[in-house]
């Protein structure tokens, strides 16, 4: 009678590693969409003043360079998180709002903020 325990354990370990790697890739993809210093702040700002104009975002996030703001907004639009509406006016007016997909991020952002408050409380208790 052979001993298959090592083989079974190796198979289980391989499966766990495969699942961990897959989940890590999924999480990496999430952070490619909403990661970075400004994207969550932009999402929150647009939510609280929807629709939001470019100049309003620029004033609210005063430490954010205009080119970075443009890049971040384009990436969020590309990924389907926000939509951009251009009005044929002089001067040109552009408004941003969250898409239905973008709105699904609100509970996620709230959970991250809740975690941050708990983290800070625990860190100050140490």
UniProtKB/TrEMBL annotation:
What Pfam families would the database entry show?
A: HxlR
* Upper taxonomic lineage: Bacteria, Pseudomonadati, Bacteroidota, Sphingobacteriia, Sphingobacteriales
Name a single GO biological process. Answer: regulation of DNA-templated transcription
Q: Which UniProt keywords apply?
A: DNA-binding, Transcription, Transcription regulation
GO molecular function (one): DNA binding
Q: Where is the HTH hxlR-type domain?
A: 25-124
User: Which organism was this protein described from?
Assistant: Sphingobacterium spiritivorum ATCC 33861
UniProt name for this protein: Transcriptional regulator, HxlR family
């Amino acid at each position: 009678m052979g001993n298959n325990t090592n083989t079974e354990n190796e198979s289980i370990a391989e499966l766990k590693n495969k699942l961990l790697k897959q989940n890590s890739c999924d999480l990496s993809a999430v952070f490619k969409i909403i990661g970075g210093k400004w994207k969550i702040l932009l999402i929150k700002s647009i939510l609280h003043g929807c629709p939001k104009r470019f100049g309003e975002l620029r004033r609210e996030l005063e430490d954010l360079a205009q080119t970075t703001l443009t890049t971040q907004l384009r990436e969020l639009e590309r990924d389907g998180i926000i939509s951009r509406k251009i009005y044929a006016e002089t001067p040109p007016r552009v408004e941003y709002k969250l898409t239905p997909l973008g709105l699904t991020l609100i509970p996620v952002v709230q959970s991250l903020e809740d975690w941050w408050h708990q983290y800070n409380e625990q860190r100050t208790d140490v």
